[in-house]
Amino acid sequence: MINWIQKNKIGLSALCLIVLTTFLLVLSLSAQNQLTTRPDDVLLRQAPSRTAKQIQSLKSGTKLTVLKRQNGWWYVKDAKDNQEGWVASWVANNTFLKKPTPLSEATIVLDPGHGGSDTGAMSYKNKNYEKTYTLETARATKKELEKTGARVLMTRDSDVVVPLLYIPRTAEKYRADAQISFHFDASGSHNSASGISQYYYNDNSLDLVQTLSQSLNNLPLQNRGFESIPYLVIKDVTRPAVLLELGFIDSDKDLSYIKSAAYQKKAATDIKNGLLDYIKTH
């Protein structure tokens, strides 16, 4: 026997390696299909949507088996009582929420306007680009929204061009509860205009733009109000979508705010509060 083992030790070593690799692979695949809820009161729903009927509320530490996945929603079975249903995976896996908020199951798409070779509007003497501050403000908003547990998706998170026709695709794919596009206005004449504005197009976006407009009244710049305009990024999308102009970049007064991290955070907080109000009633 010993002689046989010595003669075949290379083959036996290879066989052991294959068996070990197979075991580890099976173990890994099994672990990927297991989920333990982290926050309290994660909702189990009948369909992959925050508006679907609630089946039950799951306690922290509930062990679930993942049966299938769909755009971030997971169809699971409770290991204890065999109850099946859908959970928002980003809520169930959240490591800092004690309990979900009204926004936790929501999906919000943030669209920082322009980017890359498309600078957008420019300040007086062309020293400041719109694309810079749309991204900074969107990132500040993402940070505030993620504190609520919401799933936040960005159409861009670096200085790149995103074709206008591509922008609504993220909201459509993930059936977003809201798409918000960030922009800064320009009058074409130095210091001739100031203030913020909000735009929508489709009827299903009217409540969203009204709620956000009310919330943005807290900003230090005058709110010029909202109106319906067929901008491509808010026109060719079936999900609720608004476009925010958060100041005139060719106004020295507005630019001093636009460049300020404090103003960006204030706008982000107001947008978050507006979305909270909107989601509670929709």
TrEMBL record:
Keywords: Cell wall biogenesis/degradation, Hydrolase. Residues 32-95 form the SH3b domain. It comes from the Bacteria. PROSITE patterns: SH3B. InterPro entries: MurNAc-LAA_cat, N-acetylmuramoyl_amidase_3, SH3-like_bac-type. This is N-acetylmuramoyl-L-alanine amidase.
